[in-house]
Write a structure and sequence with these properties.
Number of helices: 3
Distance between the termini: 10 Å
Strand content: 35-45%
Structural class: alpha+beta
Largest sheet: 4 strands, antiparallel
Helix content: 10-25%
Pfam families: ABM (PF03992)
CATH topology: Alpha-Beta Plaits
Low-confidence stretches: none
Order of helices and strands: EHEEHHE
GO molecular function: monooxygenase activity
Strand order of the largest sheet: 2-3-1-4
Protein name: Antibiotic biosynthesis monooxygenase
InterPro entries: ABM_dom, Dimeric_a/b-barrel, Heme-degrading_MO
Keywords: Monooxygenase, Oxidoreductase
CATH class: Alpha Beta
Length: 100
């Protein structure tokens, strides 16, 4: 099993708008071989940002890599540029192999 996470620092006061972007997106994940689960996590807030993380569980690292290089991935991320003002920098990717 492989867990892919992206951490996002979101502009204070823009949390609901960020969540709406995720709720209203056209996800292609359920059509991708090896996909198991998706969760959007909201973390702590400071004066500078609110922390969010996307948490996606895959059968294998290879299934995740195939998704990242697929046309479905490109389609799912085609409107990412329309979210200016939400993000304080690019997302930080973290990938984990499940060992236990």
């Amino acid at each position: 099993m492989f867990i892919a996470m992206n951490r996002f620092k979101i502009t204070p006061g823009k949390e609901d708008e960020f969540i709406a972007v995720w709720k209203n997106r056209e996800s292609q994940l359920d059509k991708v071989s090896g996909f198991q689960q998706f969760h959007l996590l909201q973390g702590p807030s400071t004066d500078e940002h609110t922390l969010f993380a996307s948490h996606v569980i895959w059968d294998t690292r290879e299934a995740f890599d195939a998704w990242v290089h697929s046309e479905a991935f490109r389609q799912a991320h085609a409107n990412a540029g329309g979210t200016k003002g939400l993000y304080l920098g690019p997302p930080q990717f973290e990938g984990f192999e499940v060992v236990l």
